[in-house]
Amino acid sequence: MLKNILIFLFCSTLFANPEHNIIIIDDFVSDEISSTLIKYQDRTLDSTYNMGTNRAYINRSTPPKIQNIARMISERVLIEMEKNFGASREVFHVSHAVIHARIPGSFCPYHSDNITFVCPIHGKNPCTIRRLCSENCMGSFEPNHTPWYDFTAILYLNDDIEGGEIVMEDGPFNKIYKKKIPIKKNRLVIFPNGPEYYHEVLTVKKGIRHNLLLWYTGDPNYTHRIIN
Question: In terms of residue numbers, what domain contains 192?
Fold first, then answer.
């Protein structure tokens, strides 16, 4: 009897809809914290902004106040990861942290954060594969340029914009789910990385899309030395 229960639980986990692992938490931080991060990010604008995006990396040159805010948010995200995914705070840490902005016309192409599908016929560009591959293509998933990323966390800092939503689905063949997540100020979105969590950011139509991005890893070689 116990054996049957364990097999049932294992199969339930194995074949569960990956959409259920996309965690959305509203009012994760205060308006004051979001405004502070936006103001700091706006002061770091550089030439990359003219290409549609601007990134303020959290590093040694970041003001201590901003470092402390990022550290506090990171710790709270880790608590949610442990609660929702069983990801131990002793194992997982921030690998990469950036305050990000997108202006009108900016978007992020279809991709997965730590893996890519390689097709011997159509290559490995995820946008091309999404359009041309069928599920009969004899390709395989392989690590991409950031294979150490295990989880992604997105904290939206404002919602006075049009467009810019993230759309997620279970890989290039998309058989299980497709989810567009509305942008809401102070909303946190967490999801595992892998073939079931391909995503894209739709084109920003109006306003500037501000968010804090945190990537988490279980590989100690890629631990963020400032935040952790």
Answer: 20-109+144-222
Tally Cβ neighbours within 10 Å of residue 224.
20
Number of domains in the chain: 1
User: By the 8 A CB rule, do 202 and 183 touch?
Assistant: no
Task: Give pLDDT tens digits for 170-228.
Answer: 999 888 999 999 999 999 999 999 999 999 999 999 999 999 999 999 999 999 999 98
Q: What is the CATH number of the domain that holds 206?
A: 2.60.120.620
> Strands, DSSP E only, in the chain?
23-25, 53-57, 93-102, 108-111, 115-118, 140-143, 151-156, 162-163, 166-169, 178-181, 188-192, 198-201, 204-206, 209-217
**Residue 6 CA to its chain's centroid (Å):** 32
pTM reported for the whole predicted model:
0.89
